[in-house]
Amino acid sequence: CACLRRGLSRARRTNAARGVRGVDTRTRHTGQMPSSSSSDASSSSSSSETNASDDSTHVAAVARASAPPPAAAAASAPAPARDAQVSSRARELISRGLLPIARGALVAEDDDRRPEPSAVDVGAARGQDRDRQGESLRAIKRKKAEMRSKDLCRYKARGEVCKLGKRCGYAHDVEGFTRDKPPDIKAACVFINASGAKCPFGIRCRFAGGHERMRGSRCVEAEMNVLGDEMQKRLSRNAYAFPKSDAALKAAGIEVKCLSFAQKSKVERNAGSQGYLGACEPGRVNERERRGPLDFKNKLYVAPLTTVGNLPFRRVCVDLGADITVSEMAMASNLLKGDRREWALLRRHPSEKFYGVQVCGGYPDLMSRCAELLDNEVRCDFIDVNMGCPIDGVCAKGAGSSLMRDTDRLKNVVRSMTAVSSTPVTIKLRMGYFDDPSKYVAHDIIPRATKWGAAAATLHGRTREQRYSRLADWSYIDRCSAVAAESGLTLVGNGDVYTFEDYNANVANPNIATCMIGRGAIIKPWLMTEIKEQRHWDISANERLDLFKDFCSYGLEHWGSDSMGVEKTRRYLLEWMSYTHRYVPIGLLEQHVVPKLHLRPMRYVGRSDLETKLASDDVKDWLEISEMCGLGRPDESFKFVPKHASNSYTKESAEAAASWVDVGEENG
User: Fold this and answer.
1) Packed helices 311-319 and 563-580: angle between N→C axes, nearest 10 degrees
2) How confident is the model at residue 71, as a pLDDT?
3) Model-level pTM greater than 0.90?
């Protein structure tokens, strides 16, 4: 951020000389918009080579939808009817994929001052902890064990007797812990309020110094879908019964292969004597079985987002107007093993009124048992099956996008899940696995999904090979929506939604129930407010900082207020900020230009020091913001590398900014 600060005073003088002022935060931006394919990106699915249906209606629908889509590249250029007021320079930058920023705010970047990405940064793009930290998994486990041995036992922290005895891996020396504990953060603990509630972390809390004199105003609501110790033991020991799945798989002639031979023999031995261990007995009608059909129509749907789409982030989205939220993608095999880290992804806050869980797996026996488990033990409104995740490790296991290459297996997955679950099952697809229009398969899967029992489908307008490159193909989504309407399947579109105009253009098709919003919600979560109020919100830097503060409060409630919880909250905040720094306030854009998700910003300075800091891609500035949000100063050993590579400022954008800073008034 150093180069931004150097240009701040110069930019302010230029703005004052040219009469440039900040746009009122409640003013609707009425400028012209360059045409572009719309909607948002996150995780998703599609299907693969499929057999022709005997139904003549289905064959006709497939023929209509299978026509090659038009080139998506033309969507990035402004429409001739709308670009009359857009300057020629802005049009030229947009054609190069750059976001035109007002010249008074631009900073010419000095490439010599920009550090080259380190080997650790390159490894970060792969998203693996051992790549990012340069350590083996064994070394990471050993380091975590050492950290636990220095942390105080949770029972001792509350003045109780430790129930684990010698099996406890935490310290029991209260005096030693208090002596070595980092200084308390001077702020109110989120768990202490006027009702007299006690902090569950006791003296481990980093805010313990204010427990007696500082009280918050908000009561902490208990989260749902928490895995209990007894249930975890049953799952880890394979002592949980799946009578519905066993019966459904047997009727379909599908062998249970997700169990070892020893596990199978154990299940068979206990089949006669074992009682039902679910939340409700077989045949009992629970609340979800009495629910009506899913209604997605015109509801704002936040996509399941790996790492960033955690519970605190979803709460921020709900505060800003989100109607439907989904958990992060959980692996079905880990859920069946009772993996606590995987189950933590399914936690739900009471403010999430319309909530789904997304699971990923590639085989019907595995997914059937997972669906029965979720139906019994998890409070959710629908179960979403990820059939479009493009990650290599997921596809190698036969899950995610690889299901699109085997439609028979995909069909068996959906049928086996809907046969055992009273909770509606939805699917999430991509257009296809291969980046060849003749091999797109979503149009063949969507009309058949209703017969398989799916309640709805979400279609991401990209292929697996395409990943997130190029624009989403909404023309293909529109054609698939006609096929979905004929079969009676609810269809949700997904891809590149970043403004309320994008949303309006996509839901103008009556066959599309709503849009799923992914990256647009990460970069600017107030997009939900913009859609509901039908305006561009030139949000101020202080308002954006307040959203980060809310996230930190929610994070401390979710991950805890001890040292580990504070650092987890900080780390996830920084992961989120690795996206949010890409946002450019609409008041700093060229006149009559509306931002698009695929346009990269040039380096600029904001209308205040805080706005400039929020635009920085320097981790040091992000850490300063985390301190401003009440997380205190991080430990000297704290290191952070973003999990996802989402840098804003490319070399091309720097060159464009340098060539534009001294341009005359003709393009103003």
Assistant:
1) 60
2) 34
3) no
